Amino acid sequence: MILCTRFAACLLPLPMLLPVAASLSAQDQPATEPEDVGEDIIVTGRGLDAALSTGIYATTTLERDVIVASPSGRIEDVLRGVAGFQQFRRSDSRSSNPSAQGVTLRALGGNATSRALMLLDGVPLADPFFGYIPLSAIAPETLGQVRVTRGGGSGPFGAGALAGTIELESAGPGTAAPVLGSAAINNRGETELSGVLTQRLGRGFATASGRWDRGQGFFTTPDDQRVPATARAAFDSWNAALRAAAPLTDEVEMQARVGVFRDARTLRFEGADSTSTGEDASVRFVGRGAWAFDALAYVQTRDFSNVVISSTRFTPTLDQRRTPSTGIGGKFELRPPVLEGHDIRIGADYRRADGELQEDALNTVTGAITERRRAGGATGNLGIFIEDDWQIGPLLINGGLRADRSNITGGFYRAVDANGVAVSTVSADDRSDWSLNWRAGAAFNATRRLDLRAAAYTGLRLPTLNELYRPFVVFPVVTQANAALENERLEGFEIGFDWQPVNALVVSATAFDNKVENAIANVTQAPNLRRRENLSAIKARGIEANVLARFGAVSINGALAWTDAQVRGEGASADLDGNRPSQTPEWAATLTLGWQPATGWNVAGTVRHVSVQFEDDRETDRLAPATTIDAFVAAPLAGNLSLILRGENLTDEAIVTRNQGGSIDLGVPRTLWIGLRHGF
């Protein structure tokens, strides 16, 4: 792989490194890799090329060699190398509750719902009911590229891109070998098994993939807090997908994908089991002629169940037995060649989510049902957008407008006792409104080695059905829903530069100032009671920086994010004014040293640091800072077969992922993997 910037010089090929910011922005390298497979082959399996304006906004692109070389082999580990990326909790998708797997950028967190929009081949991935990302269902080995854009977006599905957009692109025949396979086992006897088959079919292709991860897990509970009922964080997850692309004409191709996944986990106590399942289908038509277009339609079905165990009696106290939900949507984007020097994009998109919680409260002594609860509703969003990139010599100007018609309908919560007598009933009024968002920016090629950029933007996020209607328990803390939640609104601006002082070194930095009005957070009402509320605002300002260097066989990659985030509290949340949002670190840094001594060999080590965080909005429960060291080694054996050695948290750092009144959960301990893989 050669990383080429918009400058004249190019960096030398890089080894397979751990997931750090392998490139500094989409302007720093081509948005796609060429497929030299014959003049009559036009099928790529990709969408339209990234817009020129991608380089105006703070963007990091990860190529395939980085994606498939993470110590844990999981997509969240890949993304943690991007400056500003953050999960709600520090735990990964083997040892967390799936409903807590929200992702965000620029420390605009505060609850478990995703504030960043994550797409797979253009399709939104967030769970229709909860808003979390099914991370265990994303197999890194099936991906060809990841592009992360921080800041607000006004293009397709922009209503979910409050903190930015994470675009995952599947690998095609020009990116991945026809047969990929890997198998690994770690020091706890946990296993990974995956395979990807890609077959050309005439001028098209088809890809079948599957992955299975399972294991006993580790104890998330510290030694001094364990009881006989304490359980390991066992996990058993699998996913499978079939994807195909075929030409309809010389300029138009059709892409289709179906996928299914199942993920079962145990957290903290025996019987505290959760299960999430999903099925997905999408079809996409991409036209690459003079009037380029991208048309997409998709459907998702999801279900989630979870058993809550009492931390005093260690018996079931709540059975969240089902949460079925459905998401449907689509988009159409047109790029007409109407003005010379302009790249215009016009389009519309639509998303609808509906779902229903079905749970039973249980007597912790007898196990009898004491209360039956149901809650649910639907949300929808229709967006219309127009955007233009205007190239004037060394100056690129971008401007975009987006109008969204959002609605929240059919909302309800109903609880009845064991005899069917109503205990609590909420029937929410239907509501809808229009919102207008925009973004504008410019990039100036000051010299052949220096680009300057600046941008401003607004953004929108609807509350999820989970936030509106579903109360939940992380025993002993109860968090109430709030059917009156308003949409979150973002206002922000940023300035930055990309600089290549010498061929072997590229430096990028971005300073930003973002504010989320009506930010939804879990606000403490009493010692064991929280409620979802709209804060006046969360204000975050900071600096993100990346460095990429290559000196012979040695490479250095670094990413740093400093964020000064504060709650702006008024009214009922006035006492939170000036507090740091929960689960938000001030500092996050990654540094990777790579070494490629010979062809086929790849050796890399990564140091990561996350500063102190707070579990709650009152800043009473502290999560200590954590510094970890990871390693990845690939050693060629024969042909396309390699020996893989991976190490997670080699120093066995205590990574505190939860602290509620002194009740602690820990992240992954020292974990050593050995395995084989073919064709990567």
What does this structure look like?
β31 (587-595) and β32 form a beta hairpin. This protein has a single domain (26-261, 268-428, 439-678), classed as TonB-dependent receptor, beta-barrel domain (Maltoporin, Chain A, Beta Barrel). The chain is mostly beta strands. It is 2% helix and 56% strand. The longest helix is centred in the N-terminal third of the chain and has 5 residues, at 75-79. It is built from three helices and 39 strands. The chain has a 24-stranded antiparallel β-sheet that branches. Strands 1-6-7-4-5 form a five-stranded mixed β-sheet. A four-stranded mixed β-sheet has the order 23-24-28-27. It starts with 58 loop residues before the first strand and ends with a strand.
Major sheet summary line: 24 strands, antiparallel
Computed over alpha carbons, the radius of gyration is 24 Å
| CATH topological fold name | Maltoporin, Chain A
> How much of the polypeptide forms β-strand, as a percent range?
over 45%
Determine the structural class based on helices, strands and strand pairing.
mainly beta
Enumerate how many helices there are, as a single number: 3
CATH-level-2 architecture:
Beta Barrel
Percent helix, as a range, is: under 10%
> How much is the average pLDDT?
90
CATH class, please? Mainly Beta
Please, what is the CATH homologous superfamily? Answer: TonB-dependent receptor, beta-barrel domain
N-end to C-end Cα span: 14 Å
Q: Tell me how many strands there are.
A: 39
Q: Which residues form runs of ≥5 with pLDDT under 50? A: 1-39
Q: What count of structural domains?
A: 1
Q: Rough shape?
A: globular
